[in-house]
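Repro:
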Amino acid sequence: MKSIRVISFLALAVVTVTLFAAPLAAQKRAQGSQYKIFLPLLDTTGCETIAGETYSALTVNPPPTDRPAEQHADLNLALRGYVATTGTLGLVDYGGSADGKAPKLYSLFGDNRVPDLSSVAQVYAWDWATNSRANPITDPPVTLAGMRVTPNEILRVPRSEYNIGTIPSIPPRGVFRDGPEDDGSKFEVLVLYASEQRITLKYTREDNVVNGYTIHVENVCTAPELLSLYRDWNQSGRAQLPALKQGQGFGRALGNEIGVVIRDNGSFMDPRSKKDWW
């Protein structure tokens, strides 16, 4: 009986290591094949803390999201999933104007580098009438970029010129709007969703992606203290949610690739666009 228990334990260990060692690229499938979603297989908060980081929450502009965040396809990217595609593995040039205040994706990384792109993918659209996945988004042709990282690398809030507030309450007029750009203590984003594998950051104080910029990061282990704070407020009705400042560490890379998605007023954008995000 003792030998059986030992064998069972070793088998479980092998399965666990295999599940969490698989890189993001191995979890995607070719265009036209069955979609892939990314739901946590095991409930774990085993990633390292980020030394020196503390986390706070801010009051959210009403109303709260209209369904549980775990079941909301605008907040939990795992519900949509994505499919591998082909395209330039590097920055691309688009015409038109750009918002100089928009998030700069190079500041996801402590060394402010333009990362090597290892893959590109198309996020699935969502049919809100049937609450189900639709076809992959093809305009723009790429909506998720796989970026090379070092396993366990700290990932940080991309800087922008937006300010969602510095106090834990809504101003007297009821809705917080963008504040002075030169406020060095400003909070930059709300955490609208977090798990052991992904996070969703929003550059306004609303509990939705309707207005402003949203960033989804896949294959990131959210810092345990931040994840705990998010879960506490999420379970308490989301009157407040965690708020982060520019450059603040929010998690660590689970492998050698992260997936990055950026949205503008809800629309999925091309994260490779040089003029917009880099």
